[in-house]
Fold this sequence. Notes:
About 60% of the residues lie in helices and about 15% in strands. With about 260 residues, the chain is α+β, with helices and mostly antiparallel strands. Strands 2-3-1-6-7 form a five-stranded mixed sheet, with helices on both faces. Strands 4-5 form a two-stranded antiparallel ribbon.
Amino acid sequence: MLYLVYTGGSHGTGPIWIFIVSPVTFFMRGLRKGIIDITIFILAVIAAFVIADNFNGYQYNSPELLSRILLSFIVVALLSGFYEYFRESYSRKLIQLAKSNEILATTDPLTALPNRRYTMERLYEEKLQSDKSNTSLSIMLFDVDDFKKINDKYGHQAGDLALIHLADTFRKFSRAKDIFCRWGGEEFLCVLPQTSVDGAIVLAKSIQQDLLAQPVSVEQEKINLFVSVGVCEVIRTGSIDWAIKKADENLYLAKSTGKNKVCSA
């Protein structure tokens, strides 16, 4: 490009090609790097005009033409810069919106835990990984005992506080690879990679003990939360649907024998 400025190109039309530099530069380099590159390019073009005029380069007959080419290029560069600024700003907003939508699509709004849809996708992934590495994979299905009584006696806001408290308790005991999700209503599902049934039972009982030690505060009153838990190991030859059904059956057994029980039969 600078060569065309120095030699004049065909019949002195070489400088016209500099007008493609700014949009291409901003497109390729982005706003910040583009500003630096174009500033350097403008200085280089001015130097090329001066060198051409003094060292046997193309002799432009009209100095006014050169100044107007430079001014026009600067205007085009500014417009291209403004366009790139708004394009980048709009792109950032789109990315943020996409992330927000992804969170909304995969997260329970009340407890901020993963929702059922996200957990099912992850559960299939964990099942494949478990089968491949021949490691244990267990699931736990929690249900808040007497949750309807909490709602009836203290109101639905108290019920929401109870679910949030339970979710916070799950986070205290969750490893990075574990998945605790709100399964629906007052039910929660936990996916435990590399964990046997015995390990899952120990975790379930630890959560129950913590809930007893840390009651929910509602209107200056302490409410103890009790949860029944159904535990099942996702066996290699079994399906995920079978494991969830088995955990649900174990949960039913736990609830039928009294609250705050863990069953893995």
